[in-house]
Amino acid sequence: MADSDPAIVVEGLRKSYRDKQALTGLDLTVPQGTVHAVLGPNGAGKTTCVRILATLLRHDGGRAEVAGYDVLRDPDQVRYRIGLLGQHAAVDEELSGRQNLEMFGRLYRLGGRRAAARADELLERFGLADTGTKAVGRYSGGMRRRLDLAASLIMRPRILFLDEPTTGLDPRGRTEVWNAVRSLVDGGTTVLLTTQYLEEADQLADRVCVIDGGRAVADGTADELKARLGGDRIEVVLRDAGQLSAAASVVGMAARGGEVETDPDRRRLGARVTDRITALTETVRALAAAGIEAEDIVLRRPTLDEVFLHLTGERAETAEEETPV
Amino acid sequence: MTTATLIDSWTGPLVDSWTMTRRGLAHWARQPVQVVVQLVFPVMTLVMFAYVLGGGMTVPGGGDYKDFLVPGTFALTMVFGLEGTVLAITQDLNKGVIDRFRSMPMARSAVLVGRSVLDMLQSTLGLLVLIGVGLAMGWRWHGGPGDTLLAVGLLLWLRFAMLWLGIFLGMAAGRPEMVQAVQILVWPVGFVSNVFSSPETMPGWLGALAVWNPMSATATEIRELFGSPGGGGGSWAADHPGLLAACWPLVLIAVFLPLAVRRYTRLSR
Lengths: 325, 269
Fold this sequence. Notes:
Helix content of chain B: over 70%
Number of helices of chain A: 11
Radius of gyration of chain A: 25 Å
Shape of chain B: globular
Oligomer: heterodimer
Strand content of chain B: under 5%
Protein backbone atom coordinates (compact mmCIF):
# COMPACT_ATOMS: atom_id res chain seq x y z
CA MET A 1 0.00 0.00 0.00
CA ALA A 2 1.49 3.32 -1.07
CA ASP A 3 1.54 6.13 1.45
CA SER A 4 -0.98 8.06 -0.59
CA ASP A 5 -3.51 5.21 -0.67
CA PRO A 6 -6.36 5.60 1.77
CA ALA A 7 -6.31 3.37 4.85
CA ILE A 8 -10.02 2.65 4.62
CA VAL A 9 -12.28 2.74 1.58
CA VAL A 10 -15.98 2.07 1.90
CA GLU A 11 -18.27 2.26 -1.12
CA GLY A 12 -22.01 1.80 -1.17
CA LEU A 13 -21.87 -0.45 1.88
CA ARG A 14 -25.17 -2.17 2.63
CA LYS A 15 -26.16 -4.47 5.49
CA SER A 16 -29.59 -5.63 6.61
CA TYR A 17 -30.49 -7.61 9.65
CA ARG A 18 -33.60 -9.74 9.70
CA ASP A 19 -35.94 -6.90 10.55
CA LYS A 20 -34.10 -3.73 9.66
CA GLN A 21 -31.65 -2.08 7.32
CA ALA A 22 -28.56 -0.98 9.22
CA LEU A 23 -26.50 0.40 6.32
CA THR A 24 -28.12 1.70 3.16
CA GLY A 25 -25.17 2.64 0.96
CA LEU A 26 -22.45 4.11 3.15
CA ASP A 27 -19.46 5.82 1.52
CA LEU A 28 -16.36 6.65 3.53
CA THR A 29 -12.70 7.26 2.74
CA VAL A 30 -10.11 7.59 5.47
CA PRO A 31 -6.59 8.77 4.50
CA GLN A 32 -3.63 7.16 6.29
CA GLY A 33 -2.52 8.67 9.55
CA THR A 34 -5.71 10.61 10.20
CA VAL A 35 -8.48 10.38 12.76
CA HIS A 36 -11.91 10.05 11.24
CA ALA A 37 -14.95 10.27 13.46
CA VAL A 38 -18.21 8.60 12.49
CA LEU A 39 -20.86 10.56 14.24
CA GLY A 40 -24.49 9.60 14.45
CA PRO A 41 -27.43 8.98 16.74
CA ASN A 42 -28.18 5.54 18.22
CA GLY A 43 -29.14 3.08 15.52
CA ALA A 44 -27.55 5.10 12.72
CA GLY A 45 -25.33 2.16 11.73
CA LYS A 46 -22.05 3.16 13.39
CA THR A 47 -21.35 -0.14 15.13
CA THR A 48 -22.42 -2.16 12.09
CA CYS A 49 -19.92 -0.20 10.00
CA VAL A 50 -17.05 -0.86 12.43
CA ARG A 51 -17.91 -4.54 12.81
CA ILE A 52 -17.86 -5.01 9.04
CA LEU A 53 -14.50 -3.24 8.74
CA ALA A 54 -13.09 -5.33 11.60
CA THR A 55 -14.18 -8.55 9.79
CA LEU A 56 -16.70 -9.46 12.49
CA LEU A 57 -19.71 -9.06 10.25
CA ARG A 58 -20.29 -9.74 6.56
CA HIS A 59 -21.92 -7.05 4.47
CA ASP A 60 -24.63 -7.69 1.89
CA GLY A 61 -23.50 -5.23 -0.76
CA GLY A 62 -20.92 -2.62 -1.65
CA ARG A 63 -17.20 -2.75 -0.99
CA ALA A 64 -15.01 -2.36 2.07
CA GLU A 65 -11.22 -2.24 1.95
CA VAL A 66 -8.94 -1.90 4.94
CA ALA A 67 -5.19 -1.35 4.49
CA GLY A 68 -5.65 -2.20 0.82
CA TYR A 69 -7.30 -5.58 1.48
CA ASP A 70 -10.90 -6.50 0.84
CA VAL A 71 -12.50 -7.45 4.15
CA LEU A 72 -14.36 -10.42 2.66
CA ARG A 73 -11.59 -11.78 0.43
CA ASP A 74 -8.54 -11.30 2.68
CA PRO A 75 -9.91 -11.10 6.21
CA ASP A 76 -6.70 -12.45 7.80
CA GLN A 77 -4.55 -9.81 6.08
CA VAL A 78 -6.93 -7.18 7.44
CA ARG A 79 -6.83 -8.77 10.90
CA TYR A 80 -3.04 -8.50 11.01
CA ARG A 81 -3.23 -4.75 10.47
CA ILE A 82 -6.09 -3.65 12.68
CA GLY A 83 -6.84 -3.19 16.33
CA LEU A 84 -10.39 -3.09 17.64
CA LEU A 85 -11.71 -1.41 20.73
CA GLY A 86 -15.40 -2.30 20.85
CA GLN A 87 -18.21 -0.96 23.00
CA HIS A 88 -17.80 -3.79 25.47
CA ALA A 89 -14.39 -4.75 26.77
CA ALA A 90 -13.11 -7.64 24.62
CA VAL A 91 -10.86 -9.19 27.24
CA ASP A 92 -11.17 -12.30 29.39
CA GLU A 93 -12.61 -11.10 32.68
CA GLU A 94 -11.56 -14.23 34.58
CA LEU A 95 -7.87 -13.73 33.84
CA SER A 96 -5.43 -11.06 34.96
CA GLY A 97 -4.35 -8.22 32.68
CA ARG A 98 -0.99 -9.86 32.07
CA GLN A 99 -2.55 -13.26 31.32
CA ASN A 100 -4.84 -11.56 28.81
CA LEU A 101 -2.07 -9.73 26.98
CA GLU A 102 0.17 -12.80 26.91
CA MET A 103 -2.66 -14.91 25.55
CA PHE A 104 -3.43 -12.43 22.77
CA GLY A 105 0.29 -12.11 22.01
CA ARG A 106 0.52 -15.88 21.60
CA LEU A 107 -2.53 -15.87 19.35
CA TYR A 108 -0.71 -13.28 17.22
CA ARG A 109 2.05 -15.95 17.12
CA LEU A 110 4.62 -13.84 18.93
CA GLY A 111 5.71 -16.90 20.87
CA GLY A 112 5.83 -17.10 24.65
CA ARG A 113 8.85 -14.91 25.35
CA ARG A 114 7.99 -12.06 23.01
CA ALA A 115 4.34 -12.17 24.09
CA ALA A 116 5.42 -11.79 27.72
CA ALA A 117 7.81 -8.93 26.92
CA ARG A 118 5.16 -7.10 24.92
CA ALA A 119 2.64 -7.63 27.75
CA ASP A 120 5.09 -6.02 30.22
CA GLU A 121 5.64 -3.07 27.90
CA LEU A 122 1.95 -2.43 27.41
CA LEU A 123 1.02 -2.87 31.07
CA GLU A 124 3.69 -0.32 31.95
CA ARG A 125 2.56 2.11 29.26
CA PHE A 126 -1.09 2.00 30.30
CA GLY A 127 -0.43 2.25 34.02
CA LEU A 128 -1.50 -1.34 34.74
CA ALA A 129 1.88 -2.72 35.77
CA ASP A 130 0.92 -3.01 39.44
CA THR A 131 -2.36 -4.91 38.94
CA GLY A 132 -0.64 -8.22 39.68
CA THR A 133 -2.82 -11.29 39.41
CA LYS A 134 -6.11 -9.47 40.00
CA ALA A 135 -8.81 -10.71 37.61
CA VAL A 136 -9.95 -8.15 35.04
CA GLY A 137 -13.51 -8.60 36.29
CA ARG A 138 -12.45 -6.66 39.39
CA TYR A 139 -10.92 -3.75 37.45
CA SER A 140 -12.59 -0.32 37.30
CA GLY A 141 -14.23 0.68 34.03
CA GLY A 142 -11.33 2.92 33.04
CA MET A 143 -8.72 0.26 33.82
CA ARG A 144 -10.62 -2.33 31.82
CA ARG A 145 -10.87 0.03 28.86
CA ARG A 146 -7.13 0.74 29.08
CA LEU A 147 -6.36 -2.98 29.08
CA ASP A 148 -8.70 -3.39 26.13
CA LEU A 149 -6.80 -0.66 24.30
CA ALA A 150 -3.48 -2.28 25.23
CA ALA A 151 -4.73 -5.59 23.79
CA SER A 152 -5.68 -3.78 20.58
CA LEU A 153 -2.14 -2.43 20.25
CA ILE A 154 -0.13 -5.63 20.70
CA MET A 155 0.76 -5.78 17.00
CA ARG A 156 1.19 -1.99 16.66
CA PRO A 157 -1.71 -1.92 14.18
CA ARG A 158 -1.68 0.65 11.42
CA ILE A 159 -5.41 1.07 11.71
CA LEU A 160 -7.36 1.24 14.91
CA PHE A 161 -11.15 1.03 15.23
CA LEU A 162 -12.67 2.61 18.29
CA ASP A 163 -16.37 1.96 18.71
CA GLU A 164 -17.73 4.51 21.19
CA PRO A 165 -14.52 4.23 23.22
CA THR A 166 -15.60 6.46 26.07
CA THR A 167 -19.27 5.53 26.47
CA GLY A 168 -19.92 4.80 30.13
CA LEU A 169 -16.63 6.23 31.38
CA ASP A 170 -16.34 9.01 33.92
CA PRO A 171 -14.64 12.26 32.83
CA ARG A 172 -11.26 11.05 34.09
CA GLY A 173 -11.51 7.76 32.21
CA ARG A 174 -12.56 9.70 29.12
CA THR A 175 -9.53 11.98 29.31
CA GLU A 176 -7.27 8.95 29.76
CA VAL A 177 -8.63 7.33 26.60
CA TRP A 178 -8.41 10.59 24.66
CA ASN A 179 -4.77 11.07 25.64
CA ALA A 180 -3.96 7.51 24.64
CA VAL A 181 -5.61 8.02 21.25
CA ARG A 182 -3.72 11.28 20.69
CA SER A 183 -0.36 9.67 21.38
CA LEU A 184 -1.21 6.86 18.96
CA VAL A 185 -2.07 9.30 16.24
CA ASP A 186 1.24 11.05 16.81
CA GLY A 187 2.81 7.67 16.04
CA GLY A 188 1.10 7.57 12.65
CA THR A 189 -1.81 5.23 13.39
CA THR A 190 -5.01 5.73 11.41
CA VAL A 191 -8.03 5.87 13.70
CA LEU A 192 -11.68 5.35 12.85
CA LEU A 193 -13.74 6.41 15.79
CA THR A 194 -17.48 6.19 16.28
CA THR A 195 -19.10 8.38 18.83
CA GLN A 196 -22.33 9.99 19.90
CA TYR A 197 -20.41 12.73 21.64
CA LEU A 198 -19.88 15.75 19.47
CA GLU A 199 -17.21 17.01 21.81
CA GLU A 200 -15.25 13.82 21.28
CA ALA A 201 -15.36 14.20 17.50
CA ASP A 202 -14.40 17.87 17.82
CA GLN A 203 -11.49 17.06 20.16
CA LEU A 204 -9.99 14.08 18.39
CA ALA A 205 -10.95 13.95 14.75
CA ASP A 206 -9.38 15.45 11.64
CA ARG A 207 -12.55 14.70 9.71
CA VAL A 208 -16.09 13.90 10.73
CA CYS A 209 -18.56 11.75 8.84
CA VAL A 210 -22.11 12.27 10.02
CA ILE A 211 -24.27 9.21 9.39
CA ASP A 212 -27.97 8.81 9.77
CA GLY A 213 -30.27 6.05 8.59
CA GLY A 214 -27.31 3.94 7.45
CA ARG A 215 -25.68 6.42 5.08
CA ALA A 216 -23.36 9.41 5.24
CA VAL A 217 -25.23 12.69 5.31
CA ALA A 218 -22.12 14.88 5.59
CA ASP A 219 -18.37 14.44 5.56
CA GLY A 220 -15.65 16.98 6.17
CA THR A 221 -13.54 18.69 8.80
CA ALA A 222 -15.42 19.95 11.83
CA ASP A 223 -14.85 23.48 10.53
CA GLU A 224 -16.23 22.62 7.10
CA LEU A 225 -19.32 21.08 8.65
CA LYS A 226 -19.82 24.13 10.79
CA ALA A 227 -19.41 26.34 7.76
CA ARG A 228 -22.27 24.43 6.11
CA LEU A 229 -24.57 26.09 8.60
CA GLY A 230 -23.76 29.41 6.92
CA GLY A 231 -20.56 30.32 8.69
CA ASP A 232 -20.11 32.24 11.90
CA ARG A 233 -22.63 34.40 13.70
CA ILE A 234 -22.13 37.88 14.97
CA GLU A 235 -24.19 38.68 18.03
CA VAL A 236 -24.70 42.11 19.57
CA VAL A 237 -26.32 42.97 22.90
CA LEU A 238 -27.48 46.61 23.24
CA ARG A 239 -27.83 48.81 26.29
CA ASP A 240 -31.07 50.28 25.02
CA ALA A 241 -33.74 48.07 23.42
CA GLY A 242 -35.14 51.17 21.67
CA GLN A 243 -32.12 51.21 19.34
CA LEU A 244 -32.76 47.67 18.15
CA SER A 245 -34.11 48.48 14.69
CA ALA A 246 -31.39 51.08 14.01
CA ALA A 247 -28.78 48.54 15.09
CA ALA A 248 -30.38 45.85 12.91
CA SER A 249 -29.80 47.87 9.73
CA VAL A 250 -26.18 48.58 10.72
CA VAL A 251 -25.46 44.91 11.46
CA GLY A 252 -27.33 43.91 8.29
CA MET A 253 -24.93 46.05 6.23
CA ALA A 254 -21.88 44.67 8.01
CA ALA A 255 -23.13 41.11 7.52
CA ARG A 256 -23.43 41.82 3.78
CA GLY A 257 -27.20 41.47 3.65
CA GLY A 258 -27.42 38.39 5.90
CA GLU A 259 -30.75 38.01 7.64
CA VAL A 260 -30.76 39.72 11.04
CA GLU A 261 -32.67 38.08 13.88
CA THR A 262 -33.70 40.30 16.76
CA ASP A 263 -34.69 39.43 20.31
CA PRO A 264 -36.18 42.58 21.97
CA ASP A 265 -36.59 40.96 25.38
CA ARG A 266 -32.88 40.29 25.69
CA ARG A 267 -31.87 43.44 23.70
CA ARG A 268 -30.03 41.12 21.37
CA LEU A 269 -29.59 40.79 17.63
CA GLY A 270 -27.58 38.40 15.52
CA ALA A 271 -26.74 37.54 11.92
CA ARG A 272 -24.72 35.00 9.98
CA VAL A 273 -21.55 36.39 8.47
CA THR A 274 -19.20 35.10 5.80
CA ASP A 275 -16.11 37.18 6.50
CA ARG A 276 -15.85 37.23 10.26
CA ILE A 277 -13.17 39.86 10.84
CA THR A 278 -14.53 42.37 8.33
CA ALA A 279 -18.01 41.92 9.77
CA LEU A 280 -16.74 42.50 13.29
CA THR A 281 -14.71 45.63 12.55
CA GLU A 282 -17.47 47.12 10.39
CA THR A 283 -20.10 46.45 13.03
CA VAL A 284 -18.04 48.06 15.77
CA ARG A 285 -17.23 51.11 13.62
CA ALA A 286 -20.80 51.57 12.26
CA LEU A 287 -22.43 51.18 15.67
CA ALA A 288 -20.09 53.82 17.12
CA ALA A 289 -20.74 56.17 14.17
CA ALA A 290 -24.50 55.79 14.66
CA GLY A 291 -24.16 56.46 18.38
CA ILE A 292 -25.52 53.05 19.35
CA GLU A 293 -24.07 51.72 22.56
CA ALA A 294 -23.35 47.98 22.68
CA GLU A 295 -22.97 46.01 25.88
CA ASP A 296 -21.40 43.01 24.20
CA ILE A 297 -20.31 42.01 20.71
CA VAL A 298 -19.24 38.42 19.95
CA LEU A 299 -18.33 36.31 16.97
CA ARG A 300 -19.46 32.75 17.51
CA ARG A 301 -18.85 29.58 15.49
CA PRO A 302 -21.76 27.19 15.28
CA THR A 303 -21.23 24.22 17.58
CA LEU A 304 -21.03 20.72 16.15
CA ASP A 305 -24.25 20.16 18.09
CA GLU A 306 -26.05 22.64 15.90
CA VAL A 307 -24.57 21.07 12.76
CA PHE A 308 -25.60 17.62 13.91
CA LEU A 309 -29.16 18.62 14.75
CA HIS A 310 -29.39 20.50 11.50
CA LEU A 311 -28.17 17.51 9.46
CA THR A 312 -29.95 14.67 11.17
CA GLY A 313 -33.08 16.66 12.04
CA GLU A 314 -33.49 17.71 8.43
CA ARG A 315 -33.26 14.16 7.21
CA ALA A 316 -35.79 12.96 9.71
CA GLU A 317 -38.27 15.55 8.43
CA THR A 318 -37.74 14.55 4.79
CA ALA A 319 -38.26 10.95 5.71
CA GLU A 320 -41.54 11.82 7.36
CA GLU A 321 -42.79 13.61 4.28
CA GLU A 322 -41.96 10.61 2.14
CA THR A 323 -43.85 8.21 4.37
CA PRO A 324 -47.32 7.63 2.91
CA VAL A 325 -50.03 8.14 5.52
CA MET B 1 4.80 -12.59 2.76
CA THR B 2 5.71 -13.92 6.17
CA THR B 3 2.31 -13.31 7.73
CA ALA B 4 0.50 -15.33 5.10
CA THR B 5 2.91 -18.23 5.52
CA LEU B 6 2.28 -18.24 9.22
CA ILE B 7 -1.48 -18.31 8.79
CA ASP B 8 -1.37 -21.09 6.23
CA SER B 9 1.10 -23.31 8.01
CA TRP B 10 -0.41 -26.39 9.61
CA THR B 11 1.16 -25.68 12.99
CA GLY B 12 -0.84 -22.47 13.38
CA PRO B 13 -4.14 -24.10 14.36
CA LEU B 14 -2.32 -26.40 16.78
CA VAL B 15 -0.49 -23.52 18.47
CA ASP B 16 -3.71 -21.50 18.75
CA SER B 17 -5.70 -24.46 20.06
CA TRP B 18 -3.04 -25.03 22.71
CA THR B 19 -3.22 -21.33 23.67
CA MET B 20 -6.99 -21.63 24.03
CA THR B 21 -6.58 -24.79 26.10
CA ARG B 22 -4.13 -22.98 28.37
CA ARG B 23 -6.72 -20.25 28.77
CA GLY B 24 -9.18 -22.84 30.05
CA LEU B 25 -6.58 -24.32 32.40
CA ALA B 26 -5.93 -20.83 33.76
CA HIS B 27 -9.68 -20.54 34.42
CA TRP B 28 -9.53 -23.83 36.34
CA ALA B 29 -6.62 -22.56 38.40
CA ARG B 30 -8.70 -19.52 39.35
CA GLN B 31 -11.88 -21.50 40.08
CA PRO B 32 -10.65 -24.66 41.83
CA VAL B 33 -13.90 -25.05 43.79
CA GLN B 34 -15.93 -25.20 40.59
CA VAL B 35 -13.60 -27.87 39.22
CA VAL B 36 -13.93 -29.96 42.37
CA VAL B 37 -17.74 -29.63 42.39
CA GLN B 38 -17.87 -30.91 38.83
CA LEU B 39 -15.77 -33.91 39.83
CA VAL B 40 -17.77 -34.61 42.98
CA PHE B 41 -21.24 -34.55 41.40
CA PRO B 42 -21.00 -37.93 39.60
CA VAL B 43 -19.38 -39.44 42.69
CA MET B 44 -22.40 -38.29 44.70
CA THR B 45 -24.77 -39.84 42.17
CA LEU B 46 -22.89 -43.12 42.33
CA VAL B 47 -22.75 -43.23 46.12
CA MET B 48 -26.42 -42.28 46.52
CA PHE B 49 -27.68 -44.87 44.08
CA ALA B 50 -25.42 -47.56 45.47
CA TYR B 51 -26.20 -47.07 49.14
CA VAL B 52 -29.57 -45.26 49.29
CA LEU B 53 -31.48 -46.99 46.50
CA GLY B 54 -29.21 -49.94 45.79
CA GLY B 55 -30.73 -52.12 48.53
CA GLY B 56 -34.01 -52.36 46.62
CA MET B 57 -32.51 -53.01 43.20
CA THR B 58 -31.99 -56.28 41.39
CA VAL B 59 -29.46 -56.92 38.67
CA PRO B 60 -30.70 -58.41 35.37
CA GLY B 61 -29.18 -61.89 35.19
CA GLY B 62 -28.11 -61.71 38.82
CA GLY B 63 -25.04 -60.26 40.52
CA ASP B 64 -24.09 -57.48 42.92
CA TYR B 65 -25.93 -54.17 42.25
CA LYS B 66 -22.81 -52.09 42.93
CA ASP B 67 -20.90 -54.04 40.28
CA PHE B 68 -23.77 -53.35 37.87
CA LEU B 69 -24.12 -49.69 38.81
CA VAL B 70 -20.48 -48.56 38.75
CA PRO B 71 -19.85 -49.02 34.99
CA GLY B 72 -23.32 -47.57 34.28
CA THR B 73 -22.35 -44.44 36.18
CA PHE B 74 -19.23 -44.12 34.02
CA ALA B 75 -21.44 -43.91 30.93
CA LEU B 76 -23.87 -41.56 32.66
CA THR B 77 -21.04 -39.18 33.58
CA MET B 78 -19.95 -39.04 29.95
CA VAL B 79 -23.46 -38.03 28.87
CA PHE B 80 -23.94 -35.54 31.71
CA GLY B 81 -20.70 -33.88 30.61
CA LEU B 82 -22.92 -32.44 27.90
CA GLU B 83 -24.28 -29.90 30.38
CA GLY B 84 -20.84 -28.52 31.11
CA THR B 85 -20.05 -28.14 27.42
CA VAL B 86 -23.34 -26.38 26.66
CA LEU B 87 -22.85 -23.98 29.55
CA ALA B 88 -19.22 -23.23 28.69
CA ILE B 89 -19.97 -22.57 25.02
CA THR B 90 -22.89 -20.23 25.69
CA GLN B 91 -20.87 -18.37 28.30
CA ASP B 92 -17.89 -18.10 25.97
CA LEU B 93 -19.86 -16.83 23.00
CA ASN B 94 -21.64 -14.24 25.10
CA LYS B 95 -18.39 -12.79 26.37
CA GLY B 96 -16.88 -9.74 24.75
CA VAL B 97 -13.55 -11.51 24.38
CA ILE B 98 -14.93 -13.65 21.55
CA ASP B 99 -15.05 -10.47 19.42
CA ARG B 100 -11.35 -9.98 19.93
CA PHE B 101 -10.60 -13.60 19.01
CA ARG B 102 -12.65 -13.20 15.86
CA SER B 103 -10.97 -9.94 14.86
CA MET B 104 -7.50 -11.54 15.21
CA PRO B 105 -5.67 -13.53 12.54
CA MET B 106 -5.82 -16.70 14.63
CA ALA B 107 -7.10 -20.10 13.50
CA ARG B 108 -10.90 -20.02 13.45
CA SER B 109 -11.05 -23.56 14.78
CA ALA B 110 -9.01 -22.82 17.91
CA VAL B 111 -11.90 -21.65 20.10
CA LEU B 112 -13.85 -24.88 19.50
CA VAL B 113 -10.81 -27.16 19.54
CA GLY B 114 -9.62 -25.57 22.79
CA ARG B 115 -13.04 -26.19 24.30
CA SER B 116 -12.95 -29.86 23.13
CA VAL B 117 -9.52 -30.54 24.58
CA LEU B 118 -10.50 -28.95 27.86
CA ASP B 119 -13.79 -30.82 28.19
CA MET B 120 -12.20 -34.12 27.24
CA LEU B 121 -9.50 -33.47 29.82
CA GLN B 122 -12.10 -32.68 32.44
CA SER B 123 -14.12 -35.81 31.60
CA THR B 124 -11.03 -38.02 31.63
CA LEU B 125 -10.16 -36.65 35.04
CA GLY B 126 -13.76 -37.19 36.19
CA LEU B 127 -13.68 -40.74 34.88
CA LEU B 128 -10.43 -41.52 36.72
CA VAL B 129 -11.86 -40.16 39.98
CA LEU B 130 -15.02 -42.21 39.47
CA ILE B 131 -13.03 -45.37 38.73
CA GLY B 132 -11.10 -44.74 41.94
CA VAL B 133 -14.32 -44.37 43.94
CA GLY B 134 -15.73 -47.50 42.27
CA LEU B 135 -12.62 -49.46 43.29
CA ALA B 136 -12.97 -48.12 46.83
CA MET B 137 -16.57 -49.37 46.86
CA GLY B 138 -15.41 -52.85 45.95
CA TRP B 139 -16.01 -52.86 42.21
CA ARG B 140 -13.24 -54.54 40.15
CA TRP B 141 -12.57 -54.97 36.46
CA HIS B 142 -12.09 -58.56 35.51
CA GLY B 143 -11.13 -58.18 31.84
CA GLY B 144 -7.57 -57.97 30.52
CA PRO B 145 -5.74 -54.64 30.15
CA GLY B 146 -6.75 -54.50 26.45
CA ASP B 147 -10.45 -54.87 27.24
CA THR B 148 -10.20 -52.38 30.09
CA LEU B 149 -8.51 -49.75 27.92
CA LEU B 150 -11.05 -50.39 25.16
CA ALA B 151 -13.84 -49.79 27.67
CA VAL B 152 -12.29 -46.48 28.73
CA GLY B 153 -11.85 -45.60 25.05
CA LEU B 154 -15.52 -46.29 24.32
CA LEU B 155 -16.55 -44.09 27.24
CA LEU B 156 -14.43 -41.19 25.99
CA TRP B 157 -15.74 -41.81 22.46
CA LEU B 158 -19.27 -41.31 23.83
CA ARG B 159 -18.11 -38.17 25.61
CA PHE B 160 -16.59 -36.88 22.37
CA ALA B 161 -19.98 -37.27 20.67
CA MET B 162 -21.66 -35.44 23.57
CA LEU B 163 -19.05 -32.71 23.19
CA TRP B 164 -20.10 -31.84 19.65
CA LEU B 165 -23.77 -32.22 20.47
CA GLY B 166 -23.11 -29.87 23.38
CA ILE B 167 -21.24 -27.32 21.28
CA PHE B 168 -24.09 -27.33 18.79
CA LEU B 169 -26.79 -27.05 21.47
CA GLY B 170 -24.82 -24.31 23.22
CA MET B 171 -24.71 -22.21 20.09
CA ALA B 172 -28.34 -22.99 19.24
CA ALA B 173 -29.43 -22.04 22.76
CA GLY B 174 -27.55 -18.79 22.41
CA ARG B 175 -27.97 -17.48 25.93
CA PRO B 176 -26.97 -18.95 29.31
CA GLU B 177 -30.63 -18.86 30.45
CA MET B 178 -31.48 -21.47 27.82
CA VAL B 179 -28.90 -23.83 29.24
CA GLN B 180 -31.31 -24.71 32.03
CA ALA B 181 -33.70 -26.24 29.53
CA VAL B 182 -30.90 -28.43 28.19
CA GLN B 183 -29.90 -29.40 31.72
CA ILE B 184 -33.42 -30.56 32.54
CA LEU B 185 -33.73 -32.53 29.30
CA VAL B 186 -30.50 -34.41 29.96
CA TRP B 187 -32.06 -36.11 32.99
CA PRO B 188 -34.67 -38.26 31.22
CA VAL B 189 -31.99 -39.22 28.70
CA GLY B 190 -29.82 -40.33 31.60
CA PHE B 191 -32.52 -42.31 33.39
CA VAL B 192 -34.33 -43.88 30.44
CA SER B 193 -31.43 -46.28 29.97
CA ASN B 194 -29.97 -49.39 31.52
CA VAL B 195 -27.66 -47.43 33.83
CA PHE B 196 -29.72 -47.85 37.01
CA SER B 197 -32.10 -50.67 36.17
CA SER B 198 -32.92 -53.15 33.43
CA PRO B 199 -35.12 -51.80 30.61
CA GLU B 200 -37.14 -55.03 30.95
CA THR B 201 -38.61 -53.68 34.19
CA MET B 202 -39.95 -50.57 32.40
CA PRO B 203 -43.23 -50.23 30.46
CA GLY B 204 -42.75 -51.67 26.96
CA TRP B 205 -42.33 -48.44 24.96
CA LEU B 206 -40.08 -46.85 27.56
CA GLY B 207 -38.00 -50.01 27.78
CA ALA B 208 -37.51 -49.91 23.99
CA LEU B 209 -36.33 -46.31 24.23
CA ALA B 210 -33.97 -47.29 27.03
CA VAL B 211 -32.53 -50.19 25.05
CA TRP B 212 -31.85 -48.00 22.02
CA ASN B 213 -30.41 -45.14 24.09
CA PRO B 214 -26.79 -44.66 22.89
CA MET B 215 -25.72 -44.55 26.50
CA SER B 216 -27.22 -48.03 27.14
CA ALA B 217 -25.16 -49.50 24.31
CA THR B 218 -21.96 -48.09 25.78
CA ALA B 219 -22.94 -49.17 29.30
CA THR B 220 -23.72 -52.73 28.18
CA GLU B 221 -20.53 -53.04 26.16
CA ILE B 222 -18.26 -51.76 28.92
CA ARG B 223 -19.97 -54.02 31.46
CA GLU B 224 -18.99 -56.92 29.23
CA LEU B 225 -15.44 -55.62 28.77
CA PHE B 226 -15.02 -55.03 32.52
CA GLY B 227 -16.59 -58.39 33.28
CA SER B 228 -19.29 -56.71 35.38
CA PRO B 229 -22.80 -58.17 35.67
CA GLY B 230 -25.77 -57.06 33.57
CA GLY B 231 -26.34 -57.07 29.85
CA GLY B 232 -28.37 -59.50 27.81
CA GLY B 233 -32.05 -58.88 27.27
CA GLY B 234 -32.88 -60.48 23.96
CA SER B 235 -33.41 -57.45 21.69
CA TRP B 236 -31.18 -56.79 18.69
CA ALA B 237 -29.78 -53.66 20.31
CA ALA B 238 -28.98 -55.53 23.53
CA ASP B 239 -27.28 -58.29 21.57
CA HIS B 240 -24.99 -55.96 19.59
CA PRO B 241 -23.78 -53.45 22.20
CA GLY B 242 -20.23 -53.27 20.79
CA LEU B 243 -21.39 -52.27 17.33
CA LEU B 244 -23.82 -49.71 18.73
CA ALA B 245 -21.32 -48.32 21.24
CA ALA B 246 -18.98 -47.64 18.31
CA CYS B 247 -21.58 -46.43 15.82
CA TRP B 248 -23.96 -44.31 17.90
CA PRO B 249 -21.28 -41.75 18.79
CA LEU B 250 -20.01 -41.86 15.21
CA VAL B 251 -23.49 -40.96 13.91
CA LEU B 252 -23.87 -38.17 16.46
CA ILE B 253 -20.43 -36.78 15.58
CA ALA B 254 -21.12 -37.04 11.85
CA VAL B 255 -24.29 -34.98 12.33
CA PHE B 256 -23.36 -32.46 14.99
CA LEU B 257 -19.69 -31.72 14.32
CA PRO B 258 -20.39 -30.19 10.88
CA LEU B 259 -23.52 -28.47 12.20
CA ALA B 260 -21.57 -26.97 15.09
CA VAL B 261 -18.70 -25.81 12.89
CA ARG B 262 -21.13 -24.32 10.37
CA ARG B 263 -22.96 -22.46 13.11
CA TYR B 264 -19.68 -21.14 14.44
CA THR B 265 -18.45 -19.87 11.08
CA ARG B 266 -21.86 -18.29 10.51
CA LEU B 267 -21.63 -16.16 13.61
CA SER B 268 -20.48 -13.34 11.36
CA ARG B 269 -23.69 -13.17 9.33
